Amino acid sequence: MRGLFVTGTDTGAGKSYVTASIAAALTARGEQLLVRKPLLTGMDDPSEGLRDDELLALAIGSSSTAGISKRKFGPAVSPHLAAAEAGVQLDASEIAAELLAETVAGGSLLVEGVGGLLVPISQTESVRDLATALGLAVVVAARPGLGTISHTLLTVESARSVGLEVKLIVFGPWPDSPTALELDNRATVARISGIEVATIPEIREPSQAAFAEAGSGLPIDSLLPSR
Fold it and tell me: Is the pTM of this model over 0.90?
């Protein structure tokens, strides 16, 4: 399957902005693209900005979030707990099969995870199991500041331990004038992991154009080469 799975070092690491930037860049070049965030929690929480599914819809120029997240839960908790409280059983293979069946022949699938790779989606499965069931290469979203070296390398190690290919690490929001710490974090993670570390800037006002511009700075052709 042609596509990517975007995960993060943890909750709030910027997965949605990285996914939206990739989605907008691929859309801008005419890629047939299915964008999905199959699990979404926190629907009941008031938010000052756009929800993850709204950001992804915006990135692909859609006025509707229909279909982007089919399993939505109210509480802002881990998906295994949210599903249990809703009386729902989440199954990685079932979710993966649905996503793969939706993908248009010749198109690409872009999936945003929830939390980090080891976040549980049930008593026996994690987000990593979903990524494995999909068989997609992984992009890791990470913060650029203090603590990111360990968090990012642990995520890479977790992915590689089950045979997932990590194609790119993305630090964001990347400042216009990065500190010595941020520059060293980027260089150190790249050196130890052997994976390219790209960056996306802070996107203060989300729009399809803003995401496309951010995505234009990512190595899109190495992630999904033009046909």
Answer: yes
Looking at residue 208, its amino acid is Q
**Based on the structure, what is the number of domains in the chain?**
1
The helix, strand and coil proportions of the chain, stated in percent and rounded to the nearest 5, come to 40, 20, 40
Is 37 in the active site?
yes
9-47 tens-digit pLDDT: 998 899 999 999 999 999 999 999 999 999 999 999 877
CATH code at 42? 3.40.50.300
What is the pLDDT averaged over residues 129-150?
98
pLDDT at 118: 98
Catalytic, out of 15, 37, 72, 167: 37
The residue-averaged pLDDT of 50-73 equals: 95
Dihedrals phi, psi of 17, to nearest 5 degrees? -70, -35
Q: What is the pLDDT of residue 109?
A: 97
Sign of the dihedral through C-alpha 70, 71, 72, 76: negative
Domain span at residue 106 reads 3-218
Q: Which residues pair with 7 in a beta bridge?
A: 140
Q: How many whole angstroms separate alpha carbon 156 and alpha carbon 141?
A: 11
**Is 225 within a domain?**
no
For residue 56, what are the contacts with CB-CB under 8 A and spacing of at least 6?
16, 19, 20, 23, 35, 37, 65, 68, 112
Is 69 a domain residue?
yes
| Within a domain: 24 | yes
Question: By the 8 A CB rule, do 69 and 53 touch?
Answer: yes
208 in any annotated domain: yes
